[in-house]
Specification:
By secondary structure, this protein is an alpha+beta fold. The chain folds into 2 domains: 97 residues, no CATH class; 77 residues, CRO Repressor. Helices cover 48% and strands 9% of the residues. It is built from 7 helices and 4 strands, in the order H-H-H-H-H-E-E-H-H-E-E. The chain has a 4-stranded antiparallel beta sheet with strand order 2-1-3-4. A hairpin with a 2-residue loop joins strand 1 and strand 2. The longest helix is centred in the N-terminal third of the chain and has 26 residues. The radius of gyration is 24 Å and the shape is elongated. 25% of the residues are buried.
Length: 199
């Protein structure tokens, strides 16, 4: 949205105006754009911190797919407001607050079992007691080779050292393994994991 001629604030930066900064404007002056980016960066950064503090630690956690999506969306919005003078700080703040509010609502809905099943994917077991579960791999579109990087990252030397590999709701792979041959994974660690009850 073009606001028309902008009046310089204190004559320091040509094309800069407080109204244009808040609601969005088109700027031709390089100096005005630089100042806007700096000011928007500070405001959006501080505002995001305040909103996340109000929402609590849960608002920044990525324990489910929609948490991950919300974090990506917030980051994209903050970045867009900082580098684009046409969006405006006010619009950016409203968008970020809306995303945090939606996340809070979904978090409350997840406390209901039926809604949680509709919102969240179940973690899936891909390997158990050193055995690769081909059915689980096919269900998520992965191959045994895809597991190898996770095993290497977990410092696993042999398949029989692996108690379980779980594809979490966030898309990350969790490797549970033991150093002693007699060790094993507790069944409760696999509660709610798809495929765990068939091994």
């Amino acid at each position: 949205m073009t606001m028309g001629p902008s009046r310089s604030t204190g004559g320091l930066v040509k094309g800069w105006s407080m109204r244009g900064w808040w609601v969005g404007t088109s700027l031709d002056s390089v100096g005005a754009i630089v100042v806007l980016v700096l000011a928007s960066g500070v405001v959006m950064f501080l505002a995001t911190i305040v909103i996340s503090r109000v929402g609590g630690a849960r608002s920044l956690a990525s324990v489910s797919a929609f948490d991950f999506i919300a974090n990506v969306a917030v980051g994209a919005m903050v970045g867009s407001v900082i580098v684009s003078p046409t969006i405006g700080v006010v619009n950016g703040l409203v968008a970020v607050a809306t995303l945090f509010l939606m996340r809070l609502v979904l978090s409350l809905l997840r406390t209901r079992t039926r809604l949680q099943r509709a919102i969240d994917d179940r973690p899936r077991l891909l390997m158990r007691d050193g055995k690769v579960l081909d059915e689980g791999l096919r269900a998520v579109g992965l191959t045994e080779i895809d597991l190898h990087s996770a095993l290497r990252a977990a410092n696993v030397h042999r398949y029989h050292d692996v108690d379980a590999i779980v594809l979490e709701k966030t898309g990350s792979l969790t490797v549970l393994h033991h150093a002693q041959p007699t060790a094993g994974v507790e069944d409760r660690l696999l509660t709610g994991v798809s495929g765990a009850d068939r091994t």
